[in-house]
Design a protein that fits this description.
Shape: globular
Number of strands: 8
Strand content: 15-25%
Distance between the termini: 22 Å
Structural class: alpha/beta
Order of helices and strands: HEHHEEHEEEHHEHHHE
Number of helices: 9
């Protein structure tokens, strides 16, 4: 999200209109997430936002489609997810806070931790809960189909994502917004590690866009490793 925001500003200096969205903006509402968790009480990955299955697929597809077809004079309202709501559990922001994108539009950046992940053979998964997640990944092909290029930012050590997420929560609290504690963030992020281990190797071998694909490895300071 930091990179795409910077790219939007950089492109503006080059007289190119860009907008940045995250797949996080397409999360289910808090009410819907609570209901989902109750429907899958033994699946730890569906008890919180983040994993496949916790997004509003139609909202994402409709938003991306509208941006693609914005034309020369269109306007698109893009959803915003407020992670500070409900003591850091998050909720979709009210319509009045959604991002209004006006044409003309040259580039749309879509970012997200699991963007581009694809279903793998169930034989490669021992965790029954992750098998359920794996089955839900096919639904995300409708989002991947909008991608014209793909940049894969891979941490040199997957454990870096824990520190990066802690930093994001601390930054949010410094802005006066409620957020999760360091211990809560650590527990939250550790739940994502099984998915990284399962899908990152496949993502490198089979990216959603093969013709325009860039793979970069990042150090703990988030800079490319030479």
């Amino acid at each position: 999200s930091t990179l795409t925001s910077s790219l939007v500003k950089f492109l503006a200096e080059k007289n190119l209109k860009a907008v940045s969205l995250s797949i996080d903006d397409f999360y289910l509402t808090r009410k819907e997430q609570v209901a989902l968790a109750k429907l899958h009480p033994i699946n730890q990955y569906l008890q919180q936002r983040g994993y496949p299955g916790t997004h509003d697929m139609a909202l994402g597809k409709n938003t991306l489609s509208a941006l693609k077809d914005i034309g020369k004079s269109g306007v698109v309202l893009c959803p915003v997810y407020d992670k500070s709501q409900h003591q850091g559990q998050g909720d979709r922001a009210p319509l009045s806070d959604w991002k209004k994108v006006k044409a003309p539009l040259d580039i749309v950046f879509l970012e997200g931790w699991m963007l581009g992940f694809s279903k793998i053979s169930e034989d490669e998964i021992e965790d029954s809960s992750l098998k359920e997640i794996n089955s839900l990944l096919e639904n995300y092909n409708s989002w991947n189909g909008f991608l014209d290029a793909f940049v894969f930012l891979e941490p040199l050590d997957i454990q870096y994502v824990i520190d990066w997420r802690v930093e994001a929560e601390e930054k949010m609290r410094d802005q006066g917004k409620p957020g999760m504690s360091r211990s809560d963030v650590t527990l939250y992020v550790k739940k994502f590690l099984p998915a990284y281990e399962a899908y990152l190797p496949r993502l490198l071998k089979n990216p959603p866009v093969k013709q325009h694909f860039l793979h970069m490895v990042l150090g703990k300071n988030r800079l490319p490793v030479v």
